[in-house]
Every structure is written in structure tokens, then in C-alpha cells.
Amino acid sequence: MNRIAVLGSANMDLVVRQPRLPRPGETIFGHDFALVPGGKGLNQAVAAARQGGTVDFLGAVGRDAYGTELRALLVSEGIRVDGLDTVDGPTGTAHITVLDSGENSIVVVSGANAAVTSLDEGQRAAIAAADFLVLQCELPVSTLIEGLAVARASGTFTVFTPAPVVPLPAAFLAGVDLVVANRLEAEEFTGETDAARAAESLSARRGWAIVTLGDEGCVVARGGVALGLAPARPVRPVDTTGAGDTFVGALVARLAEGAAGTAGTSGAADAADAADANAAGGASDAAVTDDARPDTARARPEISEDAMIDAIRWATVAASVSVTRAGATASMPTRAEVAAILA
What we know:
Number of helices: 11
Main location: cytoplasm
Radius of gyration: 19 Å
Function: Catalyzes the phosphorylation of ribose at O-5 in a reaction requiring ATP and magnesium. The resulting D-ribose-5-phosphate can then be used either for sythesis of nucleotides, histidine, and tryptophan, or as a component of the pentose phosphate pathway.
Shape: globular
CATH class: Alpha Beta
Strand order of the largest sheet: 5-4-1-8-9-10-11-12-13
Strand content: 15-25%
Number of strands: 13
Mean pLDDT: 88
CATH architecture: 3-Layer(aba) Sandwich
Distance between the termini: 21 Å
Cofactor: Mg(2+)
Pathway: Carbohydrate metabolism; D-ribose degradation; D-ribose 5-phosphate from beta-D-ribopyranose: step 2/2
Order of helices and strands: EEEHEHEEEHEHEEHHEEEHHHHH
Catalytic activity: D-ribose + ATP = D-ribose 5-phosphate + ADP + H(+)
């Protein structure tokens, strides 16, 4: 199993279950409340670890009870936390409304996550040593750019979830090996309402893109060409919180399990990075390309179509199990559970 670094947020989720959304100015009764460890980064790290991944988590928590609890959870899942800093101030929180239909809405208060404005040497070393780096948008953009630059210079395969959607340098997406976005995120980044065309646009400059469509499955594209629709596994949802993160974590763990790690990425793709950086003309754009890549850097793992299709199938099953249970991390299946379904 190859090593996975997750650079991302750690939150405590405050979850309320209720029959419907209140109208403005209206008070209604909910019927359940729970404190659940969360944050897109932590969720993806736990999902990957439960699928057998060897995971390092990089981020920050506050000096409070929530921070202590989140650190303990990561350790209990076998995730390395040397790169999880403790900072002054509160741990990040997410305030989640779950309707009886299973749909959810979320408000995030960043807390300690906002303090991760740059990487320390230990965090940079963890990314450089990893075979896969997983990124989302719940940390400051400056940190995402730095993390991606370290990965590009080290031969680390990068996986990016653009959630929540934030402004990014023009060359950022061109420096990512795999983009996994839901339908709305893909549309915001590309302007395409058709999922297949959005996936093609997201993958046009480098590697892979997956656009997830909930109970419709997902569209996968490579090098600007849509390969098709992967169907969802039909289930009756209880809570969709964390389903996307379960998909990403399981996907990366499965890719890491079978990645060759020797073929690398084509020179054409690296040249495209450099062209994007030169066109943008900004230092932050240039930082995400391979221009300064050392000769000693290992080649990035090369993912075949068969390997990606297998990983998508695996991740689809993991996500389908998660929506039949309440909570984010609490709902994530183990590798044995997914394997039993696919047997």
C-alpha cells in the first residue's frame, strides 16, 4: 500500500436532524442532535484509512476539547498526526442540518483551519514522501498552492476536491492529476451544465476528472475525453453527509493499493503546466508547475483506465454504504464491508 497525505480541515460537526428547513424568521423543532468528528480533510483521511490506506493527516486543531477529541479519533483510526498542529483559538466547526429525506445543508466556521496559512518543514516532508496528496478548499488558498507545489516537485500524485468553491490561480487545476467534483462544483469551475463536458474541461490540461452525480453515478474523463458514466449503487439514503468524502477517500486508497509508481506523467502534460504558468504570469501560478522539479524526484504514479474504473467501482460502493447510516465519519465503511459487497 502506497502512502497517502491528506492536507485539509478538521472540524467538529454539530448535526441537527429535522423534518424540513425553516422559513426565514420561523422556529421549528428538530428531533436529534449529535457531535460528530468531521471536516472534509479529516473525513477523507478516515475514509482512506478504513479502506486500508496508510495515511498522514496535515492540518490544525485548536486548544480545546474538540481539538483533543479529533486528534484522538485520527490516532484511533491508525492515521499519523505528526503534521497536525495545535494552535491558539477554537477548533473548526461545521453546523449541519439533515432533513428527514436525507438531504443536508452545512455552514462551516473555519477556526483553527484558517491558521494553516503555510506548511512547516514536517508537513512539507510528509507530502514529499507520499505517493498521493489529497487536497480540498477548507484551508487557505496559499497553503493549497504550497502543498501542490511540493507534490509536483516530489513526484506525488495529486487529488483535488474543489469544495467549497473558492477563487484559485489560473494554473492550479492544470497542476492537479485528478479532480473530483460534484455537479455544482464542476459547473462553477467550467461554466458547463452538462456533466460530461464539465469533466472533459476539468481533465483537458492534465490527467483525470470525475464529476459525481449522486444517485445518478459519476462521469469520468481523461485528457479532455469523457470515458462514460459509472452507475451508482441503488440504496435508500438516511444521511448524505460525508458521502462525497467517503467516495474520495475510498477512491484514493484503492488507487494507492494498486499504483505502479514508476511510469510517471508525460512530458506533454508537464509542458502544458509550464505554458499555463507563463500565460498567467503570476508567481502563485508558476509555483504549481514542474519548472523547478529536481532531477532526483521520483515519477508520479501512472493510473491506467482499468485501475481508475476499478477504484471508482470501489468508491461508489463505499459511498453507497455511508449514506445508509447517520453521520460523516461514523457512517464510513471498512475495507472488509466493501469487499464483501463486491465479492
